[in-house]
Structure formats: structure tokens, C-alpha cells
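Protein modeling request. Please complete all fields; requests missing the sequence field cannot be processed.
Requester role: graduate student
Desired output: 3D structure, C-alpha cell encoding
Chains: 1
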Amino acid sequence: MAHLPPMRLVEIREDGSPAEAGPAVPSAGIEALAATALLYQRVGYRPPWIGYLAVVDQAAVGTCAFTGQPADNRVEIAYFTFPGHEGRGFATQMARTLVALAREASSEVLLTAHTLPRANASTRILGKLGFECMGPIEHPEDGTVWQWRLSWPPAADGAAHQAGATQATGAGDG
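Delivered output (174 residues):
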């Protein structure tokens, strides 16, 4: 695998601004910052269960977040790579860092994620990180999505992902 440039996560404050001045933020990032501030109004602001701006070389490449603080010992992760930065491993780095932040804060919390109900880059990322596809659910805002969860400790070879994806798609390679 190619060496990825160092990425750091910058907290998105309660008002939607980055906690550090300086990173160049594209228009998609400005929209994501505003959406994060609205999310905080609905679910609250309680670090580390917040949103983050992913920064590489002083440029914002994406955003990632916990969609709220843990409830019933579960928390959902989400991530988005800004246009022009896709396919370079940044989403994987964001998701992996969210998993590490969650484990550092609470080793018992169950991590979940939602994806479109078909094989895509996000399903590959989640599988690579050891998430298991639990199958389709009806999401109140997004319609039918696949629900994923990360068992702890995660499977070392992604076997749980493969079983879950086969069950959800009905085909071995999606």
C-alpha cells in the first residue's frame, strides 16, 4: 500500500468552526461544518463524540464524526471525503481514527455505521476495519441502508465483513 501523508483530525467546535485556524476548507467542507453545528443542536456537544475536520498538509480533505454520544452503549460513525480527495485512503484513515478515539474513550462501546445498500468504497472501508454487515434496515431519514457493527476485538482478516456482505447482498462479491 502506498504511503499516505499524515492526516490529523481537527475538532469542529459547537458553532461549526474548526478548533484550529489555517486549514483551507473547500465549499463542501463549509457545508459540512454548518451541518455539524446543526447536528450538535440536535444531539449535543460532548467530546470526543463530536465531528472532526480531516486535514492533510494544511488542506481539509474530509470530515468525520460520531453522529451523537453513545446511547445504549452504541455509537455510530460517519465520514465523508471532499471531492478531489477520494480514492486516496483518507476515508479509511478517518474511520480508523474514529474507531481508535472511541476505544480510547470507552472500550465497551459498540461502533456502528450505515452505508448505501450495495457494495461501494464505504463498504470496503468498513470491511477492512473489521465491521460486519448486519443487513438492511429502514433509516428514518435515509430510507433503506445497510447497518454495520464492529465487534471487539475486530476480526483480524475481515472474515466477519465477508460473511455479512454475502448475507446482505446474496452474492459473494457484491
